[in-house]
Design goal:
Length: 238
């Protein structure tokens, strides 16, 4: 059974339809990616999966259980956690306080403290900057903090929205390495939305191509990468 299954989902902002009849699934520990042009509806779909936006049709299933319309804290408690585009870290809080906030749904305070140590051991920069205000970090450091904060919820599925956006090539490589490592180090699956196709191809096992709100191709990442549709629609080759 899939960890998460999106089943025939439509989304809309008011009268404006975005996603139409989207179905996809992510298995335990799998890295899947949704590729597609700007405005295709990728972010909107992630918002529906994490409970931030109620689908107008279809279902969101976690371990086969219907979680459609549940609020984000319920989905987080079920292990579905989003790291939004633009990082959204708290600029006036310290790095450590930002990490602690990632664990807001947890009750196991001693394990939370141990996980903060663990994040600081894995993301060395977060140990160095533990007392610094979030807003003083570079873009790449903020992205590491945003991912670590997401991991503090002990997710089973991390939804990552454009983690490489605006980062230097060196930092993009670091983000790529972290994503490739998430399963082994933190036991989580990942659903990644990325404009940087080479990053997505490098880390994902499965890919979905979204266009105008619909999934137009779903396959292993290798097959998708070499598909004609992918080259035509995404890479702009004729
Ligand atoms: P991008 O990579 O640019 O974020 P995307 O594939 O993630 O693209 P979405 O952000 O999901 O696409 O946007 C899909 C459509 O929904 C776009 O036409 C966008 O203008 C519209 N949209 C996004 N957010 C809102 C909102 N809060 N209210 C109304 N329309 C919105």
């Amino acid at each position: 059974m899939s960890l998460i299954a999106v089943d025939g989902v439509d989304t809309a902002y008011g009268a404006v339809n975005v996603n139409r009849d989207v179905s996809l699934s992510v298995g335990e520990g799998e890295v899947a990616t949704i590729l597609g042009p700007n405005g295709a509806g990728k972010t909107t779909l992630l918002r529906a999966i994490c409970g931030a936006l109620r689908p107008t049709r279809g279902r969101i299933l976690v371990d086969g259980r219907d979680m459609t319309g549940q609020p984000p804290d319920r989905l987080a408690a079920a292990g579905i956690v989003m790291v939004p585009e633009g990082r959204r870290i708290f600029a006036d809080l310290t790095v450590e306080e930002n990490l602690r906030l990632g664990a807001y749904v947890r009750r196991d305070q001693s394990a939370v403290a141990a996980d903060i140590e663990r994040m600081q051991a894995y993301f060395r920069i977060l140990a160095e900057k533990r007392g610094a205000k979030g807003g003083t970090l570079s873009g790449g450091q903020q992205q590491m903090l945003a991912i670590a904060r997401g991991l503090m919820a002990r997710p089973r599925l991390l939804l990552l929205d454009e983690p490489s956006l605006g980062l230097s090539p060196l930092m993009v490589k670091e983000v790529q390495a972290v994503i490739a490592d998430v399963r082994r180090n933190f036991g989580a699956a990942v659903l990644l939305v990325e404009q940087n196709a080479s990053l997505a191809f490098a880390v994902a096992q499965r890919g979905y191509l979204m266009q105008s709100g619909r999934i137009v191709a779903a396959d292993t990442i290798e097959a998708l990468r070499h598909s004609r549709l992918m080259r035509e629609l995404y890479l702009g080759e004729g």
